[in-house]
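Hi W., the pyridoxal-5'-phosphate complex you wanted:
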Amino acid sequence: MEFNLEYLVRQNIKNLAPYSTARHEFSGEASVMLDANENAIGSPVTLDINNQHELLNRYPDPVQTRLKQRISAIKGLPVENIFTGNGSDEAIDVLIRIFCEPGFDNIITLPPTYGMYSVAAAINNVKVKEVPLNTDFQMDIQAIADAVDEYTKIIFICSPNNPSGNSINRQDIEVILNNFDGIVVVDEAYINYARQKTLSLQLADHPNLVVLQTLSKAWGLAALRLGLAFASREIIRLMNHVKYPYNINIATQELALQGLQHVDQVNAWIRDCIEQRSWLEEELNRLSYTQKVYPSDANFLLVKMTGANEIFKYLQQNGIIVRNRSNVRGCEDCLRITVGTAAENAVLISTLKAYKK
Ligand SMILES: *Cc1c(COP(=O)(O)O)cnc(C)c1O
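Structure:
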């Protein structure tokens, strides 16, 4: 079979008459706006950026055009290929709701991986088929092919993968893209730290590709909640129909626009983080109880340690919180450690050096 978007989309979504807001129907500049039942007088608080006090009484742009134009310039992608969501989590949920019929369809995830794919599926009553990554945290292509059935609509690939940190082999992702007739979501939340290039510039070759990125990690804007999805204009159109009409509030839109001006600052942070990651990797490898530091293309390290549970508790008692992944299949005895500031990393290492078994 060939990839056929019409065939993949749920019937109710195909039939959907999307909610049309007052601001969808009118996008020009007007001096009298009596169309949306807003408070015409003002707002009790304002959004203060660059010494401007922006009122909050009007609904924001439902399709975030200015923001997408800025993202388009940075990412080198047309606005029509960009979706912005309330975190990547919104994009994950919206994709499942577009393509997966509850109680019938399934998605494939590749554990150990990001937890939201299966949570979003469970909330939507969509079955999850798990095809574990191998011991190098790479895909088992044959096992994935065997797991696919006629109800499999989406395969979620996280690259660089959370919690293992490695990038998934590019050729393997391409094999999946070329052979699976459903949607392939490649979650690139950590792409800024990776040696591999983004897949977002390959959209023209792969009509079934959706790339996820986020402002939550390298961009340092986790609190704003802004996730990005890149896909064909047809898929983006569907995502815009299914999302909440005003999914990105004006504070997020304005602050993200400001934040996106600081590309040089962000790139400098990324270089620092990668340097700190190498330092941490070296220091962690020196500890007698470290069994393995997995190679990372992200801003964290997965570390296998003898007695990981005890070390986790010890760190916690010393005011240092890392992520205990010991109980995750494929991550036995592993802690996931985010690369912090140079000072935080130094505290972590000196604390670990003082650990007595
Ligand atoms: C952190 C993370 C995200 C980001 O999610 P947001 O909702 O955009 O904050 C997405 N995917 C993975 C794999 C992550 O680790």
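Residues 263-286 form the longest helix (24 residues).

W.
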